[in-house]
Amino acid sequence: MADLEFKYEPTNFSYTPAMKKAFEDHGFFFVRGLLPQDELQKLKSVVEGAEDFRKHSYTVDDGDGRQSRMVVFSYPGNDVTGMVSRSEKVAGMCEKIMGGEVYHYHTKVMMKDPFVGGRFMWHQDYGYWYNNGCLFPDMMTVYIAIDECRKENGCLQVLRGSHKCGRIEHKTVGGQHGADMERVNEIAKVCPLDYAELKPGDAIYFHCNLLHMAPQNTGPNRRWTYLCCYNKATNDPVTEHHHPRYNKMHIVPDSAIMECQNFTDMTGKEFMNPTDVVYK
Questions:
Q1: Share above pLDDT 70 across residues of the chain, in percent, rounded to a whole number
Q2: Given this model, what pLDDT does residue 117 score?
Q3: Which domain holds residue 215?
Q4: What is the pLDDT of residue 268?
Q5: Which end of the chain has the least Cβ crowding within 10 Å, N or C?
Q6: What is the mean pLDDT of residues 196-212?
Q7: Looking at the domain assignment, is residue 275 inside a domain?
Q8: Distance of alpha carbon 45 from alpha carbon 144, whole angstroms
Q9: Residue 33 lies in a domain
Q10: What are the tens digits of pLDDT across the range 153-180?
């Protein structure tokens, strides 16, 4: 997958023609080492240690007797997690990929603990964001590994190029909204399956129509990930729902992650109440 692999260089990280081709042709690309270890450690200090952050976690059933936990917030805020979501290499890169201003649609921490972490069925993010009143698939996600993500602990799987199929019908199973599997099975015959194996700090940037899933974590190692989701400013949802409509996002330099010393003040983030969630 050489045409999908890129490396983060702090002094020379930009949106290249090769990245553009990978995103357009395949619907995703990898950036290795997007969060260096010192930045990753700061992020972990919040998601693992801040009580005002962890208390907002809730469980999602996979319809097969297992569960995952997650924390979702609507606005970045000014703590370390917010600096990551607003950073130039995350949010700024999405603006270059999308070809215009984006805003923070939400960020979530996915927590799959050893042996019990539930699966997430095949789906497109736009499969349910469509139902939120977003008229165009001008949306994307930056998926950052907090822990090592491997086949053994249920890493993300994607169907390369499936974003070109357009939106597929979805239905609710358990606490999730999954794609029509008859259609997915046909697409899998022509779109190669890739395993998004990531080291801590690696990331995958992907299109909202890319089909992806994650199996259960049946191994002894947890798998936590940090997902920043963005919507193009021109794609303001036409209906009120549990994620934000357009709001101006102030992108910060990458250096703001290490400069930030706010690990506890979660003011303004608006954490998700699971009773307000229609879909995953």
A1: 91
A2: 54
A3: 2-269
A4: 96
A5: N
A6: 98
A7: no
A8: 15
A9: yes
A10: 989 999 999 999 999 998 775 556 788 8
Q: Which residue has the tokens 């099975």?
A: 185
Residue recorded with tokens 């603990």? 113
Tokens at 43, concatenated: 């992020």
Residue 278 forms part of a structural domain? no
* Arithmetic mean of pLDDT, 17-31: 98
pLDDT for 216 = 82
pTM of the shown model: 0.94
Per the domain annotation, does 277 fall within a domain?
no
Q: How many domains would you assign to the chain?
A: 1
Kindly report the CATH number assigned to the domain that includes residue 26. Answer: 2.60.120.620
Handedness of CA 156, 273, 107, 140 (dihedral sign): positive
